[in-house]
TrEMBL record:
Top-level taxon in the UniProt lineage: Archaea
Organism, scientific name: Methanolacinia petrolearia (strain DSM 11571 / OCM 486 / SEBR 4847)
Gene3D superfamilies given in the database record: Vaccinia Virus protein VP39 (3.40.50.150)
Protein name per Swiss-Prot or TrEMBL: Methyltransferase type 12
Alphabetical list of Pfam families matching this protein: Methyltransf_25
Length: 214
């Protein structure tokens, strides 16, 4: 979603994510200090990774991102010196026995068929009782909601110092990327993939957090 390069990504991202403390905080609520093996997909520059590493000291944390410059910047952060970074497509992820697989602001980028395949793969990669935590953007149910949430989002970015053109450019591709992927449809995909419980602990505007338990 954010078109900033790796150098400016951290600063721009925090100016653009509405209520980012609540959003990332909810994601983090479902990662536990006792988790031993964690996979983060589309990790970017490691904004969330730093939070995970702080909450789960000593955990085996692996991160995947397709942008080598993002991976490079994440790897330079002292707090992430023990994290394994892999440059690659999240759709090619592999492994087993994960306590948690996490993805934020990325799954809406891939098309419906790839998303269904990825969701099923993630379920297989989790240990019994493991969690898939997806914090992402989902299309609202009505046109009224879309326009209301977009206006509120632009106003927030303006208050954070972005110009009107920068804010509008952030919003412009949103509906094309989200397609018809609502929180309800995504939750249904997780259930069809075999997750035993699916909950939605956070929802605000276009943003939501969906958690699936194996």
């Amino acid at each position: 979603m954010f078109m900033a390069g790796a150098k400016d990504y951290d600063e721009i991202a925090l100016k653009c994510v509405p209520y980012h403390d609540a959003f990332f905080g909810t994601v983090l609520d479902f990662i536990f200090p006792e988790d031993k093996k964690i996979l983060e997909l589309a990790c970017g520059t490691g904004i969330l990774t730093e939070m995970i590493a702080g909450k789960c000291p000593g955990a085996d944390i692996s991160c995947v991102d397709s942008d080598g410059s993002m991976i490079e910047k994440a790897g330079e952060k002292p707090a992430l010196s023990g994290v394994r970074f892999i440059e690659g497509d999240m759709r090619d992820c592999s492994g087993s026995g994960y306590d948690a697989v996490v993805i934020t602001q990325a799954i809406f980028f891939i098309d419906d068929s790839d998303r269904k395949i990825l969701v099923a793969k993630i379920r297989d990669m989790l240990k019994e009782g493991g969690r898939f935590i997806s914090g992402d953007m989902f299309v609202p149910g009505t046109e009224f909601e879309k326009e209301l949430y977009k206006k509120n989002w632009i106003d927030l970015m303006l208050s954070n110092g972005l110009s009107l053109s920068e804010a509008e450019n952030m919003i412009a591709p949103l509906d094309d990327f989200c397609g018809k992927n609502t929180i309800e449809s995504f939750s249904s995909e997780l259930k069809k993939a075999g997750f035993s419980r699916v909950i939605v602990p956070y929802r605000s505007g276009y943003y939501g957090v969906v958690v699936g338990y194996k």
